[in-house]
Amino acid sequence: MSVQFHTLGNGFRIVTEHMAGLKSASIGIWVNAGGRHEAVEQNGIAHFLEHMAFKGTKRRSALDIAEALEDVGGYLNAYTSREMTAYYARVLEDDVPLALDVISDILLNPTFDPREIEIERGVILQEIGQSLDTPDDVVFDWLQAVSYPKQALGRTILGPSERVKTFARNDLSRFVGQYYGPDQMILAAAGAVDHDILVAEAERLFGGLTARHVQVPEPAVFQSGEHRAVKDLEQAHFTLAFEAPGYRDASVYTSQIFSMVLGGGMSSRLFQEAREKRGLCYSIFAQAGSFADTGMMTIYSGTSGDDVGGLAELCIDELRRSANDMSEVEVARARTQLKAGMLMGLESPASRCERLARMVAIWNRVPSLEEVVDKIEAVTAPKVADFAASLCGAGKASMALYGPVEGAPDLATLQARLAA
């Protein structure tokens, strides 16, 4: 397997990895534009734009786009995150040029037909409604909002219904003009791909675009806050967050390993203590997520209204205990889990393609797997314990709860317990 990287004169980047023995490939374009790049009045436009990409171009109708890759057994999809929007396909080897042609077409030649905008507006409003009816989805949006209040990073990706109802063709075109420049795009491909052919095609399709000045998103400031919504549900949904490192921070692997020790699997502290020993919940986990300049260490559990108070206190107690009795056995297990998860995940061209794009977006290069493994191996039990202690000592946490949560302690009480 070999990674190759090339940048066109206008800043458009191409990164590929040929995987011997494969007859298929994953290919896509990742754009450094997501929810975080939106102004308040634009909230939800990046996601709306992702939907509209499939609704017709100057060369293809919406049906033509759907049939183009499905006729050859492939598929086309997209997603929007807070920092990126991705348009990607999976096809057989001979159809890689077709996939790139379709993806470039939907990015460069969208028509934004007003009739299609109205149809897709209805679809997105249904998606928002579905999200609001899914407690373990909406509670994380609330957690994000109280962690980064009055900031783009704290707003939802889907946007509020009242904003989505107002977006028009000019709004979509304006966002494309702001952020869809060649220097914001990364073409990534993995599997049965030929790097030189893709570079030549990228030059033909994107080489004539002009680089543009892009406004840098405002720096994120993690803050303490609480959102509590009492509702008659079967379960109480409890989330707690602490600030964690951004993905360029040297301690990002320490935070990931700590999250695995705390709540990353069946052997984790939270799972063993809360579920196996005390039967307080069915689902509980911890995870570390990263953005460009900040991150979030998140704990989630679904439990009963009667148990939510005890479970919240247990999470705080386990976090404090982690700072004092972290064992090398636990850290070694988490290191192995992290490495295995990464390596197993990269056995598919789709995962490889995603990794290529993300590494180029972060580092403008693709670190070798050996380099990443070395960084994981360098994380020791004392480092993880120090990280846990830093979370306890920072004094900042945020919390969101949904359901029969009247019995849950407030954030100030949990913070006091954490500092005790």
Give the rounded overall mean pLDDT.
96
Total helices: the number is: 16
Low-confidence region ranges: none
General shape: globular
The succession of helices and strands, N to C, reads EEEHHEEHHHHHEHEEHHEEHHHHHEH
Tell me roughly what share of residues is in helical segments.
40-55%
Whole-number radius of gyration? 23 Å
- How would you write the strand order of the largest sheet? 1-2-6-3-5-4
Number of strands: 11
The secondary structure category is alpha+beta
Please indicate the percent range of residues in DSSP E strands (runs of 2 or more).
15-25%
User: Main sheet?
Assistant: 6 strands, mixed
First-residue to last-residue Cα separation: 52 Å
Task: Please characterize this protein's 3D structure.
This protein has helices at 45-52, 62-70, 96-108, 114-132, 135-147, 161-164, 169-179, 195-206, 252-263, 269-277, 308-325, 328-345, 349-363, 369-377, 381-394, 411-419; strands at 2-7, 13-18, 24-31, 75-80, 85-92, 185-191, 225-230, 236-244, 281-290, 295-303, 398-403. It has 420 residues and is α+β, with helices and mostly antiparallel strands. The strands form two sheets. Strands 1-2-6-3-5-4 form a six-stranded mixed β-sheet, sandwiched between helices. A hairpin with a 4-residue loop joins β9 and β10. The N and C termini lie far apart (52 Å). 46% of the residues are buried. The model has no long low-confidence stretch (mean pLDDT 96).
